[in-house]
Amino acid sequence: MIDVQRHSGYGRFGFTILGSGSKGNATVIHAPDGDFLLDAGFSAKELERRMILRDIDPDGIQAMVVTHDHTDHVCGCRVFGNRHGIPVYLTAETCLLMGRNNELPEERIVIEPGTRFELCGLTVEPFSVSHDVEGTVAYTFRSGEDKLGYATDLGSFGLLVTSRLKDCHAIVLESNYDIRALRASARPENVKRRIMSRHGHLSNENALECLEQVISPQTRNLVLAHLSRECNDPDLVAEGLRRKLESLNRPDVCWDVACQDTPLDTIWLKSEDDFFAGFGK
Fold first, then answer.
1. Do residues 59 and 89 touch, judged by C-beta distance below 8 A?
2. Which residue among 8, 14, 60, 162 is least packed, with the fewest CB closer than 10 Å?
3. What per-residue confidence (pLDDT) applies to 280?
């Protein structure tokens, strides 16, 4: 019998990246009142396998929220949602596109960029980002004073993105490609232009520029994610981030680089120990 962790509340708040890249993206958000999925870009079976690898109970997932309708973010949404009887939260544009492709579970809840909603004890705020499909959003998640920002699949960042990420205690940000590797790749020229456009993806250089603007005294954790397997190198991304944090005099920030094949360890913004330590103060 598999011993799986059941996140039972008590003010817990954290996230587990199950995998991130062009072949699949999914993250479990651990909230005070239960767990939910951010994107479901693996098959239902693979989502469950990866959860169990990190001691997460798939039957404890309460809902799904998605960023946009590309396959690497929603391919397991319909089957996982129906199997576990849970809703998906998504924009109207994403709902329409997924409906055309038979990707929707039976229960769906339409959300609007800029309009906050409550889910599993967290305040969730979707905000629009620049990508090549209508209705793409990124998210912030807040529990009390603790805030997580999650932004991938955006070709550019501006005031809206930086303002939403500025005061986050943990940030997950796309660092999709190395521009030299992309230009040297065998991809068609139109694909290269799309990726490098303001509606494509963030390069390593773009990501570091964004981080320079959004890292604040509150920042404790950083993860760079959605790396291209063909046009990027995790070691290159890690070295760039290390140097950026050194230049900002922030050696205290814990950081990691998400990969496609293996879930990361859970990052806690607030754990049960933090909750109980607060009593009597």
1. no
2. 8
3. 41
- The whole-angstrom separation of Cα 107 and Cα 242 is 43
Q: Which residue has the tokens 């490609």?
A: 177
d(CA 232, CA 227): 6
pLDDT at 5 over 70: no
End-to-end Cα, the chain, rounded Å: 40
- Report yes or no: 210 and 202 within 8 Å, Cβ to Cβ: yes
Q: How many CB atoms lie within 10 A of CB 220?
A: 17
Task: Map tokens 């309009």 to a residue.
Answer: 115
The neighbouring-strand residues paired with 151 are 173
Q: Which residues of 164-194 are buried (b: 16+ CB within 10 A; e: fewer)?
A: bbbbbbbbbbbbbbbbebbeebebeeeebee
pLDDT confidence bin for 272, thresholds 50/70/90: low
- DSSP state, 166? T
* DSSP type of residue 203: B
**Count of alpha carbons within 13 Å of 198, Cβ hemisphere only?**
4
pLDDT digits 0-9 by tens, 23-63:
999 999 999 999 999 999 999 999 999 999 999 999 999 99
pLDDT for position 4: 37
pLDDT of residue 132: 84
Q: Which residue has the tokens 């329409």?
A: 96
3-state secondary structure of 84: helix
Torsion of CA 262, 268, 273, 279, to 10 degrees: -160
CA distance 41 to 76: 6
For 219, list phi and psi in degrees, rounded to 5.
-65, 125
Question: Class for domain 13-258, per CATH?
Answer: alpha beta
